[in-house]
Amino acid sequence: MEQLMKFSISNWSANQKLAAIVGILGFFALFAGDPYQGSTATIDTRELGVLVQKEVDHVSPVELAEWIIQGRSDFRLLDLRASEEYAAYHIPTAENVSLAGLSEYPVERNEKIILYSDGGIHSAQAWFFLKAEKYPGVYILSGGLEEWKDAVLFPSLAENAGPAERAAFEKMNEVSKFFGGTAQTGSSQEKISPQVAMPKLDMPSTTAAPGMAKKKKKEGC
Amino acid sequence: MNAPFFKFGLFGDDVSLVVAFVIGIGFGFFLERAGFGSARKLAAQFYLGDLTVFKVMFTAIITAMIGLYYLSVIGLVDLSLVYISPTYIIPQTIGGLILGLGFVIGGYCPGTSCVAAATGRTDGIVFLLGVVAGIFVFGESFNLIKEFYSSSDLGQLTFPQLLGLPYGLLVFAVVLMALGGFAGAHWLEKKFGPKGIWSNS
Questions:
Q1: What is the pLDDT of residues A159-185, one digit of tens each?
Q2: Residues in A touching B171 (Cβ below 8 Å)
Q3: Is residue A27 part of a domain?
Q4: Within a domain: residue A108?
C-alpha cells in the first residue's frame, strides 16, 4: 500500500514526465487519423484571382533562359504541346506532358513547376488544374513558346534603339547563340518562319527521361 | 500562416539562406551543449558506457515526429510539401556503413566534427579536413560511380506507405521503440557505466 502511495507523479523525474507525455501523445496518434491532407480539389477563387492579377505566377522567357544557362536544377519544365511538336523542337530540359496526362504525371507538390505551350492558353489551364490540387509552386512561361522564339531564340533590335537597348541586345545575342538561335538586327529583320529556322536539338539539351529528372538533394546529420 | 513557409512563399531564396544559417547555428549550439564536441563522449557510445548520442538523436526524432504529426493533423503543416529524400536502398546502405566506420574510427560524424572544429579541437579540425578531402575525391570520381549512386531507386518512400499501416499507428510504434530504447540505454549505462575512463565529467 505504501509502495503505491509513493507512486505519485510529483515524485517522477523530469525524464519520466517527458516520457509519459510522449507516451500519451503517441497513444492518441493511434486515433488522430492521417496527417496527409486529402486530394479533394477545393479552390479559393479570391486567392487565385489575386495571384493572377499580380502576375506572380509568370516566368519570362529571358529569366528561364538564364536559369537553364546557369544549369539550375530546382525546377521542372513541362511542355504541354503534342508529342510531335515536342519532338520537332522543345526548350532544353523540358519534359513532354499532355494536359490529359497531367494529373498522373510524376511531379511532386514540393517542386517548382514551369508550364509552357504554344501561346498561353493550355499552360494557363494546366496552371489552374495544378493550383486546384494545391501545388503551390506552379508558374507559366509568359507568352509561351511564341514569346520564347521572339525574346530568346530570335531577339530583334529596332533601328532607332538607344544605347541601353543595344547593350541589352548584345547580351541577348549571347543567350540566343547558347540556344542555337540567331539575333535579328536592322531593317532586314523579318519574321523567320519557325519551320525553317528552328534550331536543331543538338544544342546543349539535357533532356532526360521523366523518371530520371528527379534531382537528388543532399542532406545529412 | 501555414508551413512549410518557404514552399508557401513566405520568404524567398535569400531569406531562406539566413534562416538556414540561424538553424545551423542553433543545431551546432545544441550539439555542443549536449557534449557532442568531444570524440570521447561520442566514442563512449560504442562501448555502451554513455548512450547520450542515442538518447539525444532519438529524442530529436520523436519530438520532430510528434510535432509534425499533430501540426499537420490540425492543418498547420502540409506534409505533402515536406521534402522526403528518395530511397536508393543499396547505395544508401553502403554509404551508411562507410559513415558508421568513419564515426567509429574518427570519433565524429560530419555535424559533430564541425562542432569540434569550431570549438578549436585539433582532432575535429583534422576530421573536417578529411571530410573535405573525401568530398573532393567523391566529386572527382563521381562519373565512375554515377550508375551505382542512383541504382535501386525506390522513390520517396515512407513507412506507412511501405507497410500499408495507418500513419498514427506508426507514430505510436516509434514512440514505444523510443521509450523502450531509452529504458534499455539506461540499463546499459548502469551496467557498463561511467566508472573508469568513459566518465561523463
A1: 777 777 788 888 888 888 888 877 776
A2: 26, 29-30
A3: no
A4: yes
Question: Which residue range(s) make up the domain with A116?
Answer: 45-144+201-209
Query: SS3 string of B19-73?
Result: HHHHHHHHHHHHHHHCCCCCHHHHHHHHHCCCCHHHHHHHHHHHHHHHHHHHHHH
User: Do residues A53 and A122 both lie within one domain?
Assistant: yes
Nearest CA in chain A to B149: A216
Predicted confidence at residue A2, as pLDDT, reads 54
Task: Let me know whether A99 and A182 are in one domain.
Answer: no
Number of domains in chain A: 2
Rg of chain A in Å (alpha carbons) = 26
Residues of B with CB below 8 A from A19's CB?
Answer: 179, 182
A214 near B CB under 8 A? yes
**pTM score of the predicted model:** 0.59
Higher pLDDT, A32 or B148: B148
A124 falls within a domain: yes
Q: Is residue A155 part of a domain?
A: yes
Kindly list the domain boundaries of chain B, sorted by start residue.
Answer: 13-192
Which CA distances in Å does B51 have to A199, B65, B108, B197?
63, 21, 14, 15
Give B163-172 pLDDT, tens digit per residue: 888 888 999 9
Of B69, B146, B157, B169, which to mutate for an interface test with A (greatest number of A Cβ within 10 Å)?
B69
Most confident of A104-118, B66-80, B146-160, B165-179: B165-179
